Amino acid sequence: MINNQSDNKNKIALVLEGGALRGLYTAGVLDVFMENDIKVDAIFGVSAGALFGINYKSNQIGRALRYNLKYAHDKRYMGMYSLVTTGDIMNREFCFDTLVNVLDPLDFETYNNSDVDFYAVVTNVGTGKAEYINIDDARKNMEYLRASGSMPFVSNLVEIDGNNYLDGALSDPIPFKKALDMGYEKIIVILTRPEGYFKTKSFMPFGLVYKNYPNFVKTAKEVYIKYNETLNLIKQYESDGRIIVFRPSEKIKMKRVEKDLKKLQAIYDVGVKDSTNNLSIVKEFVSNNNV
């Protein structure tokens, strides 16, 4: 259930950009938030922002970094072996069953009992539109989380209740405006690209591979426009002092499926550093919450 807009005016929302394993920057920021008892009321996560952001709601400090370092070179996790053998670069069985239930379990009980509203962005391939799924039960809605991070060309379509879905970043890469539309006026945005980054037009063959889904093709081809418009809107709100924005203060060149453990640790450490350096600002921002 979506809250009434007026009820959200003085609540704190987190908006988490995707970016594959650049999302470990977000994990670093969120771990510092958890260590310092920084509380929010809602999270809007897309792609890696959703997959790593769930650890905030389950209150599991260090989990995202831990399993990414431990299993980066495990062929069961993500990479070419999984892509060739299953059609998914992120192995469905390993990532969304074995890992979350056995190897490094998500604390489903803490997650499901949390009062934080968690919205995962997915792209409906049929309509080409973004959908914002309230993940109130992580185990029950794990397929929506998988869909949110299912990158095009290297992932199978994720079918849920008769609809096909892919990466939410294709339709709403930074769900800032959605948070505004739902009435949240106090927002912390965590981006995974450094200052000055803007997205350019993609020449990936969406029309060839997804020719049966014209709405999706149009959305995917034009996502760079929405991304850049959202960045401009965020800058406007940031300059007015209405929101807090985190973006990597250091440039670390990373592959989407990065295997270099030093780079994974480094981007996480930048997140820790940036959030630690701005912790007093965040605490003041959150302490002024009137909820």
In the predicted model, the low-confidence regions spanning at least 5 consecutive residues are none
* Proportion of beta-strand residues: 5-15%
From the spread of the alpha carbons, the general shape counts as globular
Cα-to-Cα separation, first versus last residue = 19 Å
Task: List the secondary-structure elements in sequence, H or E.
Answer: EHEHHHHHEEHEEHEHHHEHH
Structural class: alpha/beta
Can you give the helix content as a percent range? 40-55%
Number of strands: 8
Report the sheet with the most strands, covering strand number, pairing sense and barrel closure. 8 strands, mixed
- Structure annotation, total helices: 13
**Radius of gyration from CA coordinates:** 18 Å
Average the pLDDT over all residues and give the rounded result. 95
